[in-house]
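tool_call: predict_structure(chain=1)
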Amino acid sequence: MHEIVTLQFGQQANYIGTHYWNTQESYFTYAGQEDSPVDHDISFRAGIGADGADTYTPRTLIYDLKGAFGTLRRENALYGLQQHEDGPPRQGGWSGPTMPLQLPPIEPSGYQQALDQGREPPRLSTETVRFWSDYNHIFYHPRSIVQLNEYELNSSLFPFERADTGEELFAGLDREHDLLDRDLRPWLEECDQLQGLQVLSGIDDAWGGFAAKYLERIADELGKGCRWVFGLQDGRCVGRERGVLRGVNAGRSLLALGGGGSMQVPLASVPGGGAAYLEFEREARWHSSALQAVAFESVTLPTRLRRAEAGRATFDALETTLNNEGNRRIAAAGLTIADPAHLEGAPQANGHRDTRMANGHANGLANGHAHDEDAVPDMDFFPDLTATATSGRTLGRKPHVFSTVTSLRGSWTSSEEPADAQREVRDRRFAPGPRASTLQTGLLFPALASYPRIFRFEGRPEGLAVKATLATSTAVAERIRGLEGVARRGVGVEEREALCDGLRGVAEEYEEGWSDSEEGGEDE
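tool_result:
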């Protein structure tokens, strides 16, 4: 079945995860409708609810701090309170009187109340979305919800903002509970043939350290496997001291996650590039996570398609294209979005008509645009956050592209490539041009009621045409060297040499094995 288990660590990860699971729920079809091209069994599990009824819930683990879940509870309409797990609190050795202290309950949002009552939900806004659970459509299994009570959300006394803080928290919890046995192993044991893990985690705060140690334990227990880490970076403007701390955390996390993750995809909350149609509030997690969710959901879409789909791909197949036999395991994500009515050809229905895909490896694909080497995505999710960067150009020279994976949703013209360009080439290390894979489907990204209106398109399309790319190129080396420069200023002498040498070693993998002559000598 090639199941996928999703791990979500932290606030931004869970904002993105909520958009993601709402989107997966929208792909379900019912009696009288044509089957969805998405195989729901890959991401969802069947179970039995508290009343004996069949249930269908996401294969996910959701970690967050105390106070971060809003109105979401482990018990819900599908699963009642688990008394063996949530019984009365233990009093330890204290035998004296106790005085219970209870905080006032959080009132459910008007959106959630409308969903519970079967009414048309009101329009959401940045003022009405207080928590990621305020726009959630999904019922989760009680095992999915893991609250870490050692730290509180937005605490100024004990902030959860340093990578080593996350490492220490994981070590303490794992020593006490064995987190893999308690939380993850039950999900893995339900899988017939695990395709891989997809991980959403902050990398510029304490969650980066927590996730790195978590994946290190997984690698020790399970050995090799596909474990894709979507590392979330906060692109909002902050003071110099806070910015240095974020850069140091990101550098440490990228290096540490390389041991347990098989592929890393940094996703900044504020992308670089110039998308004139984009209009969103940078400070609002509901907005920034919505944009990241389009990229995350689109680049992983081929891994969730039904086996009968011609262009279905697994994480392993995508890695083969991207990582040069394991040496380049950080890919930059890019995104271009369009109103499907403005693309050439008739717009496709949202997932229920033409879902055929073209899966080929062709020359001339640079930055995700077939036959157009100068074109770049409208949004770059691995921008240089430490210096001024412009449209993927470095020192006046186009980056050298080693490999690309492009996921097209809608009637993009590159779907009409000649048949000989669709020929599969598994090993292009010694051939001209980048190793590339293009996958196309008519399944548009759905513009749900829970999704913010952050695109200035005429009217409000029910679905969005998406061109999402993953690329390994020399631009990745420049971003990593930028983090190395920040780390050099922000860490002590004892750690500096190991951290900076490690980041330089990663960057060098994106600078070796090619020469300027391959670019035809064309500098801008």
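agent: Residues 240-260 form the longest helix (21 residues). Proceeding to next step.
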